[in-house]
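User: I'm new to structure prediction. If I give you an amino acid sequence, what do you actually give back? Let's try with this one:
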Amino acid sequence: MFSNTNNTLFLIIKRIYSRFKDNNIPAFASQLTYSFVLSFFPFLIFLLTLISYTPVNSEKLLAFFSATLPQVSYDIVLNTINQTIASRKGTLLPIGMITTIWMSSNGMNAVISGLNKAFNQKESRPFWKVRGISIIATLFLAVAILFSLVLLVFGEIIGKNIFQILGFSHLFIGVWNVARYVITFLSMTFVFSLLYRFTPNNPPSLKEVIPGAIFTTFGWIMVSLLFSLYVNNFSNYSNMYGGIGGIIILLIWLYWISVIILLGGELNASLISMSKKK
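Assistant: Good question. You get back a string of structure tokens that encode the predicted 3D arrangement of the chain. For your 278 residues, that looks like this:
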């Protein structure tokens, strides 16, 4: 039993590595990083606008990025957002909101191209349909991040109130404090499942994309935390690149996030291919 499991795992890793080379994931991840850079700050501005309609303040979003980004890159994000907030009068106007969402969806458009490559598909849908899917996927991602922030920031208070109303003991509060992190993980996994399910030209089933979604969620978290730990404690990017060190680090972080997203698609494609050959 264990031998068969090990052989299957080895075969999956071998297939992904082969597809990694054949589909030239590093080069495609570089293209995806370029699109992410152009859409990263518009997406942040869009998030800040949405947050203004929730109990969460902008400092909580910045704290989220502070925990996942290296310090020098976080400083760039913070300065850019502060300048945007200072120069913006009132809330984002409808035309400004539309422009921001359109620019933010450019990164998702690049993800669609990458997933089509992973599944060896050629895009045959009209431009407006692909762009519409990109916008919807971007909105889902924004809502998932907002949901995660609300759950992480106010989750303990929400849990206490619910358990007091239901008359549960304090033991359930401890369980809830763990469960809210699990729910956050599951919400991001759900969004990535939708991403892998609906964005390729010939979409796979929801069941077929769950492994890649779990991999991408876990990989996103681990890459962010480990890269932040490494840069903050062991690297000398600032000494090497000077004033643009923060930008270089942000690019590297976005590059590895791109690799993780594409590998999630490759994992799904590999598992689907293996299941069809059985």
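You can read the tokens as a compact description of the fold. Here is one thing that stands out. The mean pLDDT is 76.
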